Amino acid sequence: MAKTALKPGGRFKSAVSDAQVMVVKAPAGEHELGCGGTDMLAGNAEGSGSLPADDTGEVLIGKRYVNADESLELLCTKGGKGTLVFNGTPLEIKQAKQLPSSD
Amino acid sequence: MSARPTDDDRLASRYAAALLQSLDLAVPAPALAPLHPALAAAACGLQALTGESDGPALICPAPLAAAADAALAALATLAPEGAFEGLAGRDLLTERAAVFGHARRGAVSPGGSCRLLATGDGAVALNLARDDDWSLLPALFERDLDADWPAVTRAVSGLRMHDVVERGRELGLAVAPVVPPPSQPPPWVRTVASARPDPRPAPRPRVLDLSSLWAGPLCGHLLQRCGAEVVKLEGLQRPDGARRGPAAFFDLMNAGKRCVALDFGSPGGRRQLAALIARADIVIEASRPRALRQLGIDAEALVRERPGLTWISLTGYGREAPAAQWVAYGDDAGVAGGLAYLMRQVHGHACFVGDAIADPLAGLHAALAAWAGWRAGGGGLLSVSLVDVIRHVVGFEAPTNADGWHRRARDWAAVLTSVNVRPPQARSASARAAAPGDDNAHVFADWGLAC
């Protein structure tokens, strides 16, 4: 896996499915970000690959994904197959936002 | 008062007739007491909620209060005699502000979470209603920034309107451009999927209300006054956020509804949700379509399968891609519908009109669509969007150019004196609302579900 810098607002897409994410927050430095067993691609880069048969994960549009200490947070902007993995550890869905008390 | 009602005094009656006609209802249009739209807005507190905090209350040249009167009067023609005795639709627009103590704040919404902000090439309304919305701002602006409005205002000023709106929507933020109302108003309700008529409609409909905050709960509240049995359904993890606001307002919207709470995160909870939906005659729901699909609920399919079902889908911008993904609340939806633009056109600067104005107006229109659909033996999947309701009201008998809007603002101002402009008022709730899940056992028993 290759390392890449993650900045708020940065976009990444899966090399093996339709999944796309936007970085909400990320720790400083360079990190590994993968989906479906392959590095995610920055911006408009083109990639090709196939989803491993044992990856039954799915990235759901509108959901936010975090690592254990929530130092990384991604928003799924397009749904697709594959598990999101950050520095070797699968990401979890962040609990839904609390509703506002008024608007 | 002048002896003869003017054409303007009859606008609400004509709007009521138009609403009933758009539902293909062959019922006589209600006879509303003649009332000038400007006097309606001034009397109910809508005008008091519009304008700068240190300036005069401003007239909005769109007939919002008159349309609210008309929507409730149209509903009353279909409801049992006396269902809305002593209640005018316009009074429903301002009672939240009365309870909360909100006042006009110009380019800040009365509730405070929504602001009109200048970008490099136009203005936007940005509503940060959820605390968590602030955590998305670094992604919106592609850099870290202080979590306060001055920092947001500076950051927005350096961007293009289109970029703020597009990116904000993608992030799930409620953001809208300050735009004119469309030249052709859209329909206020769309039938997305037709119902098969129920051969034996229930004498008293069961309403399952999955919504929260204001528009949907108001719709359920009005159906309750029509005689419906209303069950308010909440997720255990995310009860209605309005419960954390003043009880007087929550009670006003929700007293008398039975409250069921389920764990949507568990298969059992989702089965119970499906079972309750299967036994409801009217469903009120205000989620983005994908949220229910992710819970395994497909409104289109349910409407096709279940004879007699009426499903009210309240959204910000409708159910069609890509707008189905966009979030809206009452204040920013008013801006998206053209209100802030109109205020700038006739008064020289943009401001909010009323308190979350699209919420109560959409709730009123949704109740009319729901009750009419149920009476017809099943309305199917009916989409009522906050923005389209505003556009429909703004576009009703609307002037066709800037001069026309100016002339209307002048003419409407001429009927007002300072004594007409009253502060918002609220009704008192009939009782306390139930707590989440208070009525699980009773509702499951009555609706024939195992617990």
From TrEMBL, chain A:
This is Uncharacterized protein. It comes from Sinimarinibacterium flocculans.
From TrEMBL, chain B:
Keywords: Transferase. The keyword Transferase applies. The keyword Transferase applies. InterPro entries: CoA-transferase_III, CoA-Trfase_fam_III, CoA-Trfase_III_dom_1_sf. GO terms for molecular function: transferase activity. This is CoA transferase family III. The lineage of its organism: Bacteria, Pseudomonadati, Pseudomonadota, Gammaproteobacteria, Nevskiales.
